[in-house]
Structures are given as C-alpha cells and as structure tokens.
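wait is this the right file?? whatever heres the structure
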C-alpha cells in the first residue's frame, strides 16, 4: 500500500544524493560555477535551483502531512496518480522533451560556493526522506499538497513526492550535461 510507495520515494531521494556526489566529485569552485554559455546554468545553479524549489516544496509537504494527521486521512489502498498528475509527472521527468523556464522566484544566484550549496542540498534530501517516512499511514491520494509553483494547483501527497523526485532527476541530468562539457 502507501508504505511501499513511500519507501520507494525515500530510495529515490537517496539515489539523488548518490548521483549528486558523483556529479560534484573532484570539482573546484571554478568548475562548479562554470557555465557552458551565458544563457545556460552551471552545475552550481542546477543544485541551487533545486534547493530553492525543494525547500518550498518540503514546507508544503510538511503542512499537508500535518493537516492529514489532524484530519486522520489514513490510507485506503494503493496509490496511483490521476490523469492531471500523470501529465505533470510526464512533463517533469527526464529526458526533457519540453524545456521550461524557471519562474523568477526559483531562479538561482550564480557564483555560490560548492561548500555552501552541496551541504544544503544534502540536508534538503535528508529532510525529504524524513518527510516520506513521516507520511506513513496517510492516504497518498486524498491528502493534498499546494504546489509552490502554482498555488491554485493541489497535487496528491504521493504525486508531490514523485514530482519532486522527477524534478530533481531533471536537473541532475542537466548538471551531468554541464559536467561532460567542462573545459
């Protein structure tokens, strides 16, 4: 039921940590902040964007989990995303078919140090793993989460975890492309 899905999300966030370590292994500040061109993000900007967006998403998850607990919205079966959620996940999951521009409030600052960005990113992943654990017993379909990008849209708790992981994989793929282009 929901417990296996939540464990799956926790494993996805752990895999993201492992990949992030691989991407940043051996990088110095200059290489971490190098841009392939003036209009493309550096590895640093990929991770800084994930921190900005992920922090807001984690807060929204915390609020939804708390509301779900208060209202006793417990699970009643296996989770499957609905049609709108599947569409959003399909647009988010790599490989990128439709490039998107990040909303201004989610655009990263350029030139942040590796020693600040990566520990913050790893802390966010720990927070997301703990949130997946804390959602145990809640109905992943009926507990709704307001999305920070478009607050009028509410995704199910399960789809929100899936969307965050997909978004992170999307930008990890972007960071890998930058790393392969490093001079």
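ok assuming it is, sequence goes like this
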């Amino acid at each position: 039921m929901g417990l296996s899905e939540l464990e799956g999300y926790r494993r996805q966030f752990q895999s993201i940590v492992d990949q992030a370590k691989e991407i940043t292994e051996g990088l110095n500040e200059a290489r971490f902040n190098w841009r392939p061109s003036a209009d493309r993000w550096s590895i640093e900007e990929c991770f800084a964007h994930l921190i900005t967006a992920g922090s807001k998403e984690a807060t929204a998850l915390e609020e939804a989990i708390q509301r779900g607990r208060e209202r006793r919205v417990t699970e009643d079966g296996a989770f499957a995303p609905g049609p709108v959620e599947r569409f959003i996940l399909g647009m988010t999951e790599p490989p990128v078919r439709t490039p998107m521009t990040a909303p201004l409030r989610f655009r990263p600052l350029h030139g942040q140090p590796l020693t600040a960005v990566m520990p913050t990113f790893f802390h966010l992943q720990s927070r997301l793993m703990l949130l997946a654990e804390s959602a145990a017993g809640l109905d992943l379909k009926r507990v709704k989460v307001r999305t920070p990008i478009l607050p009028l849209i509410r995704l199910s708790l399960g789809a929100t975890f899936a969307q965050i992981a997909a978004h992170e994989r999307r930008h990890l793929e972007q960071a890998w492309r930058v790393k392969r282009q490093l001079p």
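The domain at 2-181 is CATH 1.20.120.450 (Four Helix Bundle (Hemerythrin (Met), subunit A)). so i think its the right one actually
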